[in-house]
């Protein structure tokens, strides 16, 4: 297959289509210069990425009001698609924000009712498709 | 499903079994306090994680001799497994190191022959299984 692969840059619209289609992504933080990575169930709405996590978790501690990088991808034998969202994360606290987040219908993998909602406001959304 | 989920900590051996089984992971870096995340094709050997990337890529620039966090996961309807490796990345340069890395048989998604090999030496390997 050497030499037959192509790399395509996704449009912003295509990036959001990929994000809307994937249930799980990974969040990277860099608090104190130390990289951390977490898998999260997520959803998208109105140009933001939303996910749920647990109160008191390390993720909550690291993510609040900090810059994050978030990635979702899909792989088949023929093609790989990856989208990266960079932006700022904030914990949702107002009733209006929480109602909007809950309306997205994300299903946490462990749903014990104790959830914290986090919203990423993107500064940059990029994506690539590799086809072979 | 509320309240029926269980979270299990994986043993180190189980973590390596998960890593050995997954073709794709995501690498997080924190150079300059700015988080970055990259999907990579990877393999494991002798207690290290190996992956290939392209010469001159942003990943190479960020990863060399720096602390990284690497994650691989697998999701089904019933269970989610995630393993995180923290450690230090280095670019392989000696013939002996390159021969060892190439023997793992990682297949880069875009295989145009221009590869840089990176090895992560773990300081910590942790994993969790969520069952619902």
Tally of domains of chain A: 1
State the order of secondary-structure elements of chain A, H for helix, E for strand. EHEEEHEEHE
Q: Return the CATH class of chain A.
A: Mainly Beta
| Overall 3D form of chain A | globular
Uncertain ranges of chain A = none
How many helices of chain A? Answer: 3
How far apart lie the N and C ends of chain A?
7 Å
Q: Which descriptors apply to this entry?
A:
alpha+beta, six-stranded antiparallel beta barrel, homodimer, 132 residues, globular
Kindly describe this structure:
Chains A, B: InterPro entries: Pyridox_Oxase-rel, Split_barrel_FMN-bd. Chains A, B: This is Pyridoxamine 5'-phosphate oxidase family protein. Chains A, B: It holds the Pfam family Pyridox_ox_2. Two copies of one chain form a homodimer. With 132 residues, chain A is an alpha+beta fold. Chain A has one domain (11-126): Pnp Oxidase, Chain A (Roll). Chain A has three helices and seven strands; from the N terminus they run βαβββαββαβ. Chain A has helices at 12-21, 58-63, 95-103, and strands at 6-9, 24-29, 36-45, 48-53, 67-75, 79-91, 116-131. Chain A has a six-stranded antiparallel β-barrel. The mean pLDDT of chain A is 89.
Nutshell version of this structure?
Two copies of one chain form a homodimer. Helix content of chain A is 19%, strand content 48%.
């Amino acid at each position: 297959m050497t030499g037959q692969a192509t790399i395509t840059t996704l449009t912003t619209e295509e990036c959001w289509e990929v994000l809307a289609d994937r249930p799980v992504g990974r969040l990277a933080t860099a608090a104190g210069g130390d990289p951390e990575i977490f898998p999260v169930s997520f959803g998208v709405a109105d140009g933001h990425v939303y996910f749920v996590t647990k109160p008191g978790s390390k993720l909550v501690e690291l993510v609040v009001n900090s810059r994050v990088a978030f990635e979702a991808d899909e792989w088949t034998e023929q093609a790989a698609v990856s989208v990266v969202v960079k932006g700022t994360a904030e914990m949702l606290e107002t009733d209006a924000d929480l109602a909007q987040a809950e309306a997205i219908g994300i299903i946490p993998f462990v749903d014990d009712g104790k959830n914290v909602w986090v919203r990423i406001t993107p500064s940059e959304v990029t994506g690539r498709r590799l086809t072979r």
